[in-house]
Amino acid sequence: MLEQLFGSKTRVKLLSMFFNNPQRSFFVREITRKINEQINSVRRELANLQDLGIVVSLAKNGKLYYGLDNKYEFAREFKSIFKVADVPQKEDNEEKLAVKFKRTGVMEMVLMLGYFVGDHESQIDLFIVGKADKKKLKHLVDELQKDAGKELNFCIMPKEEYQYRNTLYDRFIMDVMSHPKITLINKIQSNLGALNE
User: Fold this and answer.
1) Phi-psi category of 7—alpha, beta or left, where left has phi over 0 and alpha has psi -120 to 50?
2) Is residue 111 located within the same domain as residue 72?
3) Cβ distance 166 to 190 under 8 Å?
4) N or C: which end of the chain has fewer CB within 10 A?
């Protein structure tokens, strides 16, 4: 429906990306990877969005970055539209990511925090409980960092250590659980349900 309304699949993907990441800027090749569209189509639609005053560009470190112009007069309305429209895609992406983590080893719990939920106060971006193949996990984290365009802070610990520290109401564990998060995997009975999901 949105493609019919806005006239282009690439344009809809770009609008969804920008309005769901209003504080971030992206360079062109990063955008093509994120929305899986051809670079010529992306460049054309970025130019259209700039002409409409929705997107602004900024040269930094030899690259041209594009981001949402938060002063755009209909920014609030567009954010509402694309926040709702992005939910099914977001849930689908989370399911796919959970599968990827399961392929790295025995995953008891995987939480996405910090960068993934726009929480700048969180110490970490990924909290993992379980046993993982180091190479496979590193490859997956590298992939996530590439998409994020930044280094991600993550913590992995064995199930036994997590359960022990959880029973002691360990400060670090409680801090992790008190922050906004996305639960990809949770096979452990813990304080998670009693705190902020």
Assistant:
1) left
2) no
3) yes
4) N
Question: Looking at the structure, do residues 111 and 184 belong to the same domain, yes or no?
Answer: yes
Nearest to 183 by CA among 106, 91, 103, 118: 91
Contact 19, 83 (CB under 8 A): yes
Work out the mean pLDDT of the chain and round it to a whole number. 84
For residue 135, with 0-12 CB atoms within 10 Å meaning exposed, 13-18 middle and 19 or more buried, which class applies?
Answer: exposed
Strand partners, 60: 63
Q: Which domain holds residue 28?
A: 2-86
What is the tally of structural domains in the chain?
Answer: 2
- Choose among 69, 73, 49, 48: nearest CA to 58: 69
Distance CA 174, CA 172 (A): 5
Helical (H) or strand (E) element with 144: helix 134-148
pTM of the model: 0.57
Tell me the average pLDDT across 8-25: 86
Residue 63: name the closest of 113, 38, 29 by CA.
29
**pLDDT tens-digit map of 98-123:** 999 999 999 999 999 988 877 778 89
Mean pLDDT to the nearest integer, 37-56:
93
C-beta atoms surrounding 91 within 10 Å: 10
